[in-house]
Specification:
The complex is a heterodimer.
Chain A (H helix, E strand, L loop, with lengths): L2 H29 L9 H37 L10 H16 L8 H39 L6 H41 L2 H6 L22 H33 L2 H16 L2 H22 L10 H25 L3 H9 L4 H30 L2 H6 L17 H9 L8 H34 L2
Chain B lengths: L10 H46 L1 E10 L9 H4 L4 H7 L2 H18 L6 H11 L7 E7 L2 H7 L5 H12 L3 E5 L18 H32 L4 H13 L4 H15 L7 H25 L3 H9 L4 H29 L3 H5 L20 H9 L5 H31 L4
Antiparallel strand pairs in B: 1-2, 1-3
Helix pairs in contact in B: 1-16, 3-5, 6-7, 8-11, 8-13, 8-15, 10-11, 11-13, 12-13, 13-16, 15-16
Classes of the chains: A mainly alpha, B mainly alpha.
């Protein structure tokens, strides 16, 4: 059952209620002795429309969750489903196939068993679709007409509508908390399931990462889930190589743009830098894999290295560094601009050159802001996915040689969750544990950075 | 009279001054170098993509004259207007007819190198204009992937020789591939198109916008205009700021664990992708929205309140319309980021091979960045050009969106 149709139906009913209520309110106007209502007609209209749409939307949200399960239940109750295999996985495959054919998403079945279930599925889907539409209509009419009958010339529709608007505003701002909570709870839940199978000590301190999605799920080998090489790869690519590129280039760009550049040039160069931040990371990843990685490999070959890897930490780190330049430079730009002009003028008046002023006065004064910018940049670099997925490898490697293949936390999350493994397997669940570590680390970095910025900003006010 | 020299300007002083000026110059050059490096890398990236991508908008085609007058295929308009028209033409032997004329024009070897799906293009042309069944028409049909790479100078020597023979006769060539923008994914680089992914992107963005924009704007209004200063609103503020900095892949994990648990049947549908991206985009809209609302001067609010407007009327009749351009700028920037996002969509399973464009919010789809990622994994060299071409399309979309944001910002920028 497509929720889109139900939603359109709800909006149509809401519009009908709006128009009807407005017409009724206009008619009150002519009836009442002084031609005045307690609220404008449009507030009467909104009152009815809100009472029609909100309950229906809540119902639709609930219904699109329940309906598929009711459909499955009724198909399983059908006599044709009696000889389905008891194995959970196989049974699910057959059911999915039959549903795909019944909804028209697929043309034919692969398993012969699914054939018999197509008709029951079709029947159940259309049965529950009718129930869904009927319930939507009934709820909308019930609540809408109740609200409609409450309208009177002295009915304070505006106060009620405004109270509802405030409620909606509050709910909208709660979405952020719910999302944070959702991230936290889902990650913690799956991480605990993972730690029920693999000991956290093995995971956090082991140095060998080689999960086997095909291994027996009931008795996983904890020694294959040591995440230290992943943490090292992430730090090496994101916090070391990328920052060696991004910090000097970003800082010098910011200094040049704020202190030296002609305003006309600045108007062109600054947006050009910002474009670097707007290029999708999948494009950087493709660039790294197609151009940079082979170039580095050729360079290593000509330098006399035997058999260098075509996927190197260096390629991913360099390209990521370029991507990060605008973040560093815009943060540095802001914090250098926040240094009071008097400090700069004082230094210049003492006879220091511009570069001496920048190095000895401006940069030290802006340092907290620059450090905060660097921390934000690191948190972005270690959470970055596509560049490393496309340019780094999936082989975990604990090494300090930037020309070797390395893997990162984000690469492994993608690798573990896009495989064929089932959701009860520790290899799949390890992705959530890795995600949880990543979430905590980036959150910590951001938190510290925001604190530093806040403190620093107050210093000159 | 001897020249008067200031006692401080000794030789050592002059030397030091020279060094300091040299250091100054070096520092300035370093700064210029840093920024030029970034610009050159950007230019290099764009130029590489463009050079590769231009080839991606073309394909290798073979020239096949087909004389329908002798083919015996009936072009009954009533059957050709039905949905099964292509199957009908297949049953009437259209593929064999094409094969016959191909081997006449290109020789048996050449005919076997026509893409196996090429007859469908002829069928589409016939359905569009049944009159060509009474004429002799020259078709440009896609070559097979093997012949296409041989024409480019790769692959095995025999096919390359064949390509050279055909080229000498002027029967093979690279033409602009209009279908690249109107087809969906395929296994053969000669047959792929981006419309499927583009449509998936558009549907996903509609869901994202429909969820993130109202929620983001309303949350911004609440926090900026009505929220009391207490622990709850502090918590809301902190979580919005944190969400803006959470890595995108974490949102993918959330979508996987929550949305796919609630809607197990809508795997890889734009609905789930849009919901996931909406959670990611909403904080961006809230933050830019709050700045835009903050910029509306208090005198506007006071004026409205003074003539008897209620607090809700003040906001919806006066503050919101004035803040809207600023909010829209932030929304477009947030949407541009969502459009280029890949990782969360990989998590929720939008990496499947989808050969037909999605026909709704709940049918399986892929999006443009994911399509680029999938093609980048293909071994066939023909896909390299196609990938770059798809990247050009994606970048053009982003450029238009960012341009629109800048235009809006300049147009509505107000000094109060």
């Amino acid at each position: 059952m497509s929720p889109t149709i139900l939603l359109l139906l709800a909006l149509g009913l809401g519009l009908a209620g709006w128009l009807a209520a407005r017409a009724r309110a206009w008619s009150f106007r002519s009836q009442s002795p002084n031609g005045r209502l307690a609220s404008l007609p449009s507030y009467h209209a909104w009152y009815v429309a809100l009472w029609t749409v909100i309950p229906v939307v809540l119902f639709i949200a609930l219904w699109s969750f329940i309906a598929p399960q009711l459909v499955t239940q009724s198909v399983l109750a059908d006599p044709a489903a009696a000889d389905l295999p008891a194995f959970d996985f196989q049974r699910q495959t057959i059911l999915n196939e039959a549903r795909a054919v019944a909804t028209g998403a697929a043309n034919g079945v692969f398993n012969q068993e699914a054939d018999a279930l197509v008709e029951p599925y079709r029947a159940a889907i259309s049965h529950y679709r009718l129930i869904g539409i009927g319930a939507t209509l009934a709820i909308a009419l019930l609540f809408g007409s109740w609200a409609f009958l409450r309208l009177k010339p002295d009915f304070a529709a505006r106060t009620k509508v405004e109270r509802a608007v405030m409620g909606i505003l509050l709910v909208a701002s709660l979405v952020a908390i719910l999302t944070t909570l959702g991230i936290f709870v889902s990650l913690v839940f799956e991480t605990f399931r993972f730690f029920g199978m693999v000991s956290p000590i093995d995971f956090l301190f082991g140095t060998h990462w080689a999960p086997d999605p095909m291994a027996n799920a009931a008795n996983p080998d904890g020694s294959r889930y040591g995440a230290i090489p992943l943490f090292w790869g992430t730090i090496f690519i994101g916090a070391i190589i990328a920052m060696i590129v991004a910090i000097p280039l970003g800082l010098m760009s910011a200094i040049y743009l704020t202190q030296y550049a002609d305003p006309r040039w600045r108007a062109w160069l600054k947006p050009a830098l910002e474009i670097l931040a707007g290029v999708p990371t999948v494009v950087y990843g493709y660039f790294a894999a197609l151009t940079v990685a082979p170039f580095i490999r050729d360079l290593a070959l000509s330098a006399g290295m035997s058999n260098p890897s075509s996927e190197s930490a260096l390629a991913a780190g360099l390209v990521m560094g370029v991507m990060i330049i605008p973040f560093v430079s815009s943060m540095a730009d802001d914090s250098i601009a926040a240094v009071p002009q008097a400090m700069r003028d004082g230094s210049l008046a003492m006879g220091a050159t511009t570069s001496e002023t920048i190095r000895r006065v401006l940069v030290p004064a802006a340092l907290p802001g620059i450090v905060a910018g660097v921390m934000l940049a690191i948190s972005r670099a270690i959470g970055e996915t596509m560049i490393v997925v496309m340019a780094a490898s999936t082989a975990a490697n604990l090494s300090v040689n930037p020309l070797e293949a390395m893997t990162t936390v984000t690469v492994q999350i993608v690798a573990m969750l896009t495989g064929e493994g089932s959701f009860d397997h520790p290899a799949t669940l390890s992705a959530f544990a890795l995600g949880f570590v990543l979430f905590l680390v980036t959150l910590g970095l951001n938190f510290i950075a925001l604190r530093v910025v806040k403190r620093f900003r107050e210093a000159y006010e | 009279m001897s020249e008067h020299i200031a006692p401080t300007r000794t030789e050592a002083f002059e030397k030091r001054l020279k060094q300091r000026y040299a250091a100054e110059k070096r520092f300035k050059m370093l700064g210029l170098g840093a920024i030029l490096f970034s610009v050159i890398v950007l230019a290099f990236l764009l130029i590489t993509m463009s050079i590769n991508g231009i080839g991606g908008f073309q394909r290798v085609e073979l020239t096949v004259p087909v004389d329908f007058t002798e083919s015996g295929i009936s072009g009954d308009p009533s059957t050709l207007s039905q949905s099964g028209a292509i199957q009908n033409l297949e049953a009437q032997g259209l593929p064999e007819v094409i094969e016959f004329f191909a081997s006449q024009a290109l020789g048996d070897e050449g005919a076997s190198e026509i893409s196996s799906e090429a007859w469908r293009e002829v069928a589409t042309a016939v359905i569009e204009d049944p009159a060509i069944l009474r004429q002799s028409v020259v078709f440009e049909l896609p070559a097979s992937a093997d012949l296409a790479s041989a024409y480019r100078g790769e692959g095995d020597p025999e096919t390359r020789e064949l390509a050279q023979q055909l080229e000498a006769k002027g029967l093979i060539g690279r033409n602009f591939d209009t279908g690249f923008l109107s087809r969906a994914d395929a296994t053969d680089p000669q047959q792929v198109g981006i419309w499927g992914a583009l449509k998936g992107s558009i549907l996903t963005m509609i869901i994202t916008l429909a969820l993130a924009f109202p929620v983001g704007v309303l949350a911004a209004l609440y926090l900026e205009e009505y929220a009391p200063k207490n622990r709850w609103t502090d918590l809301i503020e902190v979580s919005i700021n944190n969400l803006a900095a959470v890595p995108s892949i974490i949102f993918g994990l959330l979508g996987l664990a929550v949305f796919l648990w609630i809607f197990p049947n809508y795997r890889s549908a734009p609905l789930i992708g849009g919901m996931t991206l909406a959670l990611m985009t909403m904080p961006v809209i809230v933050i830019s929205g709050r700045n835009a609302i903050k910029a509306v001067p208090p005198s506007i609010r006071d004026g409205a309140l003074a003539i008897g407007a209620s607090p809700v009327q003040v906001v919806f009749h006066h503050v919101l319309p004035l803040a809207l351009p600023g909010i829209l700028t932030g929304t477009i920037i947030g949407m541009a980021r969502a459009l280029g996002e890949t990782a969360p969509l990989l998590m929720i399973g939008m990496r499947a091979f989808v050969a037909t464009p999605p026909d709704g919010f709940t049918s399986p789809a892929t999006v443009l960045p994911v399509q680029i990622f999938l093609w980048s994994d293909e071994i066939d060299l023909g896909f390299v050009e196609r990938t770059s071409a798809a990247i050009i399309v994606l970048l053009l979309f982003l450029l238009v969106m960012n341009g629109l944001a800048i235009y809006l910002r300049n147009k509505f920028e107000k000094k109060w």
